[in-house]
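Exercise 7b. Backbone tokens:
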């Protein structure tokens, strides 16, 4: 048993918790994919958490940690525009994958999964938007537990979530595979139709990369410059236990 010695996390209730932009595993049209892209399409043990049309011309995988400030910045400032202009319009199929730096991030991802597929992205969004209130405080697990109650988690449900071996193994497996198979060593790291893009990406630069991968896009366009991950945020935790 992964004894998750954490008393915590339930989750935020009424902000974006009921987003239903989810679930599906693996992008479509495998005939047009490289071997590397086919490897990327293999989901974790419990499947992938996704948004958008799986037949979209662009598939974006994001490896993120919920305690990563650059990931939070992307979630708050870049992702809403990507969703509006690309995901909601059928141009991008988006897959978010767990890549926790530490036990707290692992617990936060577990909590998001325990919320269920229809609320997963809502929980992730709130975790990122409230990151300073729980990730960087003296007792982060207690702070997460307080947030959890706002999302309808009882103490009992939260405790059961933190002891859920299947969810823990899923988070650990996804992170380890990302590091070992695809060379992910910082967050956020994106794979856009197989092209690896690491670092903090403003929307204008992200938009240029996405346009390159649209049908008829200029595949020779230069890559956008990306910012390196900050010190101490280059290695996933994926711990054996919390």
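Sequence design result:
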């Amino acid at each position: 048993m992964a004894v998750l010695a954490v008393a915590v996390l339930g989750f935020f209730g009424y902000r974006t918790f009921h987003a239903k932009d989810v679930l599906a595993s693996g992008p479509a049209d495998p005939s047009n994919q490289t071997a590397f892209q086919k490897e990327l399409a293999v989901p974790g043990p419990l499947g992938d958490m996704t948004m958008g049309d799986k037949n979209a011309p662009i598939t974006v995988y994001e490896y993120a940690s919920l305690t990563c400030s650059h990931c939070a910045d992307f979630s708050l400032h870049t992702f809403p525009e990507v969703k509006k202009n690309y995901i909601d319009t059928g141009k991008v199929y988006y897959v978010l994958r767990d890549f926790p730096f530490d036990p707290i991030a692992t617990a936060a991802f577990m909590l998001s999964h325990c919320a269920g597929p229809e609320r997963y992205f809502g929980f992730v969004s709130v975790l990122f938007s409230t990151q300073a209130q729980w990730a960087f405080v003296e007792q982060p697990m207690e702070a997460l537990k307080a947030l959890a109650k706002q999302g309808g988690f009882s103490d009992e449900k939260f405790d059961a979530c933190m002891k859920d071996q299947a969810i823990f193994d899923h988070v650990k497996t996804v992170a380890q595979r990302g590091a070992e198979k695809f060379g992910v060593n910082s967050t956020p790291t994106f794979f856009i139709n197989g092209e690896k893009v690491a670092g903090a990406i403003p929307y204008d630069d992200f938009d240029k990369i996405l346009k390159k991968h649209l049908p008829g896009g200029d595949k020779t366009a230069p890559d956008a410059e990306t910012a390196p991950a900050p010190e101490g945020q280059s290695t996933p935790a994926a711990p054996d236990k919390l």
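Instructor comment: The mean pLDDT is 83. The first strand starts at residue 49 and ends at 51.
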